[in-house]
Design goal:
By secondary structure, the protein is of the alpha/beta class. It has helices at 8-26, 32-47, 82-90, 95-103, 122-126, 159-188, 193-196, 209-221, 238-247, 269-274, 291-294, 310-322, 348-354, 359-365, 382-394, 410-418, 424-441, 449-452, 469-487, 492-499, 503-512, and strands spanning 49-57, 73-78, 107-109, 132-137, 144-151, 228-231, 256-260, 299-303, 324-325, 334-335, 339-344, 370-371, 407-408, 446-447, 457-459, 465-467. It folds into 4 domains: 16-188, GAF domain (Beta-Lactamase), CATH 3.30.450.40; 194-371, Rossmann fold, CATH 3.40.50.300; 375-454, Orthogonal Bundle (Helicase, Ruva Protein, domain 3), CATH 1.10.8.60; 465-521, Arc Repressor Mutant, subunit A, CATH 1.10.10. A 5-stranded antiparallel β-sheet has the order 2-1-5-4-3, with helices on both faces. A hairpin with a 6-residue loop joins strand 4 (132-137) and strand 5. Helix 2 (32-47) packs antiparallel against helix 6 (159-188) and helix 16 crosses helix 21. It is globular and about 95 Å long.
Length: 522
C-alpha cells in the first residue's frame, strides 16, 4: 500500500515552485513601496524570521538627493519595535549590514552576540541579538539590503534559508531598479522640490507644475511684511496655504487665528472682527475681544472675505492702512500688530462691478495674489494626494479612523486620476475616508475602485433611478471613450488625436474604466 503523502523531496520542490511563482508575481507591482511591502512579507515567511528590514537606494551617478540633502532611500520593516527601526537604519554604516554591503556577500551568524565580528557592538549586546541573516540586493554597487533577525523557535538560519534569501535578493534587483528609476524620474520633474527643503510646506501634497507656480508665490510673499489674498475654487486648500504662509513668516511665533466671514451673521461681523465694549449690541453683555486682538503678533486668516458687509470692509481697509481700529461702541483707538491673509472662492472683480466689494480694499489686498489651482489643473497630483489621505485616515484617532494601514489598487489610482473632482482636494479627502470604511467593512486591506466610486443612486419621484452627478459623468466618459476607440480600431494614438488628449491619458482612462475591445458588444 502506497502513501499519498508527498516525500520530503516532493514537498521541497513544491515549496520552491511556489516561491518562484511568488517571486515572479512581485514583478507585477507598479509602485515601489507596495513592492517592498510584498517582498519583505515574502522573505520573512520563507525564512521563518521574526523581524525583517528591507532597504533599497538610488545608486545612479546623478541620482537626486532628498530634501535634506541625503541619498534617496526607501525602506520597510516588520516585527521590530518603532525605536529599534532607527538603530537598524543606523546599522547600514556598521555591523552586520555594513559588512554585507561592503563585501557584496551574505552574512549569517547563529548568534551575533557570540560572533567575533559583531559582539563588540553596543546595539548587539543591548538587544541580545542572536540569529541574523543579511543579503545584499545587487552588487557593484549594492542596490540595498535585506536584513533578517531572530528565527521562530529560537533556531539559527540554515543553508536553505540562506539560499532562499539570496535567491530573493537576485530576483528583487530588476523589479526594484525599474521602480527606483520611476521614482527618480518623478522626483526630477517635481516642480515643488526646490521649495520643500527651505520652507515648511507640510500638508501641501503634490509635485505638478501648477502647484509649483502657486508655491513660488507663497515662498515669495511669506517672509515679507505684506498682507495677502489667496484665491481658488472651493476645496483647493486655501487654509492650508494660509497656514504655510504663517509658518514661514516673520510672525511665525505668534498665533494663527481663523475667521470664516461667510458664517458670521451680518450684524455681528464688526464685533467678531474688531471686538465690542459691553452693551455695544444686544448680545454684548460683557466686553467682547475681537479676532484682531486675538491675532496680536501673529496672523489673522479671513476666509471667504468677500462675504464681509460693505461697512465692515471699510473698517478693515482702515485697519490695513493704519494698523489701528476701534472696537464697536468704543472711542478708543487701538493699535494692533498682526498680518492679514484673506481668501475667497468668489470673483472679487465681478463683485466690485456689482457694488458688493470695495475696489480700494481689493487693490489693497491684491498686491501679489496667490491662486491655488484646482485638482483638474493638476491631475498628476491626485495619486500622491490619494496615498497621503489613505495613510492619514487609516492612522489612530483623532486624526484618523484607527483602522490601520490600507493599500490602494492600481485601478483605483487610475480611476481617481481620471475622475472629475468639482469639490477638489476636500471632496477627494471625504471620498477616501468613506472608501476606507467601505474596504474595512468588506474585510479587506486594499481600497479598490468600487470603494472609491460606489454606485450612489437615489429614487426619482417617478420611480426610476437617478444617477449621482459623479456616476453619470463616469458613464458618459466611458461610453464616449469606447465609441471613439471603436471608430479608430482601438488605436490609442489616433484616439488621443481625436479627443485632444495625450496618449498616456488615453491609456489611463482605458485602465480606469476597465475597457476592452470586447466591451463594444456589451
Amino acid at each position: 500500500m502506497t502513501s499519498d503523502k508527498p516525500s520530503k523531496t516532493e514537498a521541497r520542490l513544491r515549496r520552491e515552485r511556489d516561491l518562484y511563482r511568488q517571486l515572479l508575481e512581485l514583478g507585477t507591482e507598479g509602485e515601489l513601496r507596495p513592492l517592498l511591502k510584498r517582498a519583505l512579507k515574502l522573505v520573512v515567511a520563507i525564512t521563518g524570521a521574526q523581524n525583517g528590514y528591507l532597504e533599497v537606494r538610488d545608486e545612479s551617478p546623478n541620482a537626486p538627493l532628498d530634501i535634506g540633502g541625503a541619498q534617496l532611500r526607501w525602506s520597510m520593516a516588520t516585527g521590530f519595535k518603532r525605536d529599534d527601526i532607527h538603530e537598524v537604519r543606523q546599522a547600514i554604516s556598521r555591523g552586520v549590514i555594513a559588512e554585507s554591503i561592503a563585501t557584496g556577500k551574505s552574512v549569517r551568524a547563529a548568534s551575533a552576540m557570540d560572533d567575533t565580528r559583531f559582539h563588540d557592538l553596543a546595539s548587539v549586546q543591548e538587544h541580545e541579538i542572536e540569529a541574523v541573516l543579511c543579503a545584499p540586493i545587487g552588487t557593484d554597487p549594492s542596490l540595498g539590503v535585506v536584513y533578517l533577525q531572530g528565527r521562530k523557535g529560537g533556531a539559527e538560519f540554515g543553508d536553505e534559508d540562506l539560499w532562499h534569501a539570496e535567491l530573493f535578493a537576485r530576483y528583487l534587483v530588476p523589479y526594484a531598479d525599474r521602480l527606483i528609476t520611476q521614482e527618480r524620474q518623478r522626483i526630477e520633474v517635481d516642480a515643488t522640490r526646490k521649495y520643500r527643503g527651505k520652507f515648511d510646506l507640510r500638508g501641501i501634497i503634490g509635485s505638478s507644475a501648477a502647484l509649483g507656480d502657486a508655491l513660488a508665490r507663497l515662498v515669495m510673499v511669506a517672509p515679507l511684511p505684506v498682507d495677502v489674498v489667496i484665491t481658488g475654487d472651493t476645496g483647493t486648500g486655501k487654509t492650508l496655504f494660509a497656514r504655510a504662509i504663517h509658518r514661514n513668516s516673520h510672525v511665525a511665533a505668534g498665533p494663527f487665528i481663523e475667521l470664516n466671514c461667510g458664517t458670521i451673521p451680518e450684524g455681528l461681523a464688526e464685533s467678531e472682527l474688531f471686538g465690542a465694549v459691553k452693551g455695544a449690541h444686544s448680545t454684548a453683555d460683557r466686553e467682547v475681544p475681537g479676532k484682531i486682538s486675538a491675532s496680536e503678533g501673529g496672523t489673522l486668516f479671513l476666509d471667504e472675505v468677500g462675504e464681509l458687509p460693505l461697512a465692515v470692509q471699510v473698517k478693515l481697509l482702515q485697519f490695513l492702512h493704519a494698523k489701528t481700529y476701534r472696537p464697536l461702541g468704543s472711542n478708543d483707538l487701538i493699535h494692533a500688530n498682526c498680518r492679514i491673509i484673506a481668501a475667497t472662492n468668489r470673483d472679487l472683480q465681478a463683485m466690485i462691478k456689482d457694488g458688493t466689494f470695495r475696489e480700494d480694499l481689493y487693490y489693497r489686498l491684491h498686491t501679489l495674489p496667490i491662486r491655488i489651482p484646482s485638482l483638474a489643473e493638476r491631475r498628476e497630483d491626485v495619486r500622491d494626494i490619494l496615498l497621503h489621505f489613505v495613510e492619514r485616515f487609516g492612522s489612530a484617532p483623532p486624526v484618523g479612523l484607527g483602522l490601520g494601514r490600507f493599500d490602494v489598487s492600481p485601478a483605483a489610482v487610475h480611476a481617481a486620476t481620471a475622475a472629475e473632482w468639482p469639490g477638489n482636494v476636500r471632496e477627494l479627502a471625504h471620498r477616501i475616508k468613506a472608501a476606507i470604511m467601505l474596504a474595512n467593512a468588506d474585510g479587506g486591506r486594499v481600497i479598490r475602485r468600487k470603494h472609491l466610486f460606489p454606485q450612489s443612486r437615489e429614487a426619482h419621484p417617478e420611480g426610476e433611478e437617478r444617477l449621482s452627478f459623479q456616476e453619470a459623468t463616469r458613464r458618459f466618459q466611458r461610453g464616449y471613450l469606447l465609441e471613439t476607440l471603436e471608430e479608430v480600431n482601438w488605436s490609442k494614438t489616433e484616439a488621443a488625436r481625436v479627443l485632444d488628449l495625450s496618449r498616456s491619458s488615453i491609456h489611463n482612462h482605458i485602465r480606469a474604466h476597465d475597457l476592452k475591445p470586447t466591451d463594444a458588444s456589451t
